[in-house]
Amino acid sequence: MRRRLLALVAALSSLPLALAAAPSAHAADPTTMTNGFYVDPDSSAKRWVAANPGDGRKPAINDSIANTPTARWFGSWSGTIGTATGAYAGAADAQDKLPILVAYNIYNRDYCGGHSAGGAASPSAYMNWIAQFAGGIAGRPAVVVLEPDSLGDYGCMNQAQIDEREAMLTGALAEFNRQTPNTWVYLDAGNPAWASAATMAQRLHEAGLRQAHGFSLNVSNYLTTAENTAYGNAVNRELGARYGYTKPFVVDTSRNGNGSNGQWCNPSGRRIGTPTQLGGGAEMLLWIKVPGESDGNCGAGSGSSAGQFLPEVAYKMIYGY
Fold this sequence. Notes:
Strand order of the largest sheet: 1-2-3-4-5-6-8-7
Protein name: Glucanase
Oligomer: single chain
Radius of gyration: 19 Å
Keywords: Carbohydrate metabolism, Cellulose degradation, Disulfide bond, Glycosidase, Hydrolase, Polysaccharide degradation, Signal
Family: Belongs to the glycosyl hydrolase family 6.
Mean pLDDT: 91
Largest sheet: 8 strands, mixed
EC number: 3.2.1.-
Number of strands: 8
Shape: globular
GO molecular function, one term: hydrolase activity
Distance between the termini: 46 Å
């Protein structure tokens, strides 16, 4: 009942602003409809802790990682996607908590990098998948990070492929606007080391950012919150100057406590960052990537696959060595 009343109040009090803003400016604010962020009960860190009760690393990993609100990623491994997102958003809603979901299934995913290659079988298959993703959430409050890395690296793509990708993202945002009135969607904008603020502003705009609530930065990367905040503000200056609007942004702080050493794939000596919270220089600081999950067969994760939980990497990340 509390959520419904808050939603009604928010809708009524914000109606004039919503009509004047971009099409994505939903009347409801999911952060006011819930009481804190949702802790994924089935994260890779939670599963490892449950399976290793006698491991000496367990207390630190349990306290510092497994019980911090972190996003759940959804892709081809998630089964029937509408059922999966519906169950997750529903479990969070039952606890009056705000879930963070990542949509990670775009056609030709990680086309240039390759470590996380995959995704839907075709653009039309992706559009069907993302429509079901949104439909599963429906009217429940949620935060969605849309397709990490999808706008970061165009280096190996031709113009037709770029146009195709941007059209998929625009279509995805339209689906969320149509089906999820209480969800804030952040279109991913890579990180400051990938593209200039001017370039990223153009890519975001061409991919339909005007329809999104905002954009996300530093997903699965290590750059400091200060670097990302400066970059996000620079992107907004470009958006304002070129297109006449700005957007809020969020920063993935899960692994940026020591900043970056210039490597992106399982670098050693990194550290967990500020836990998930509202504010902190951005609209929100979020743990989007689970600390300890591998970036791929590289660096400190040699021999692992992307997404595999590596307890020793997680343990060292807690202490920064």
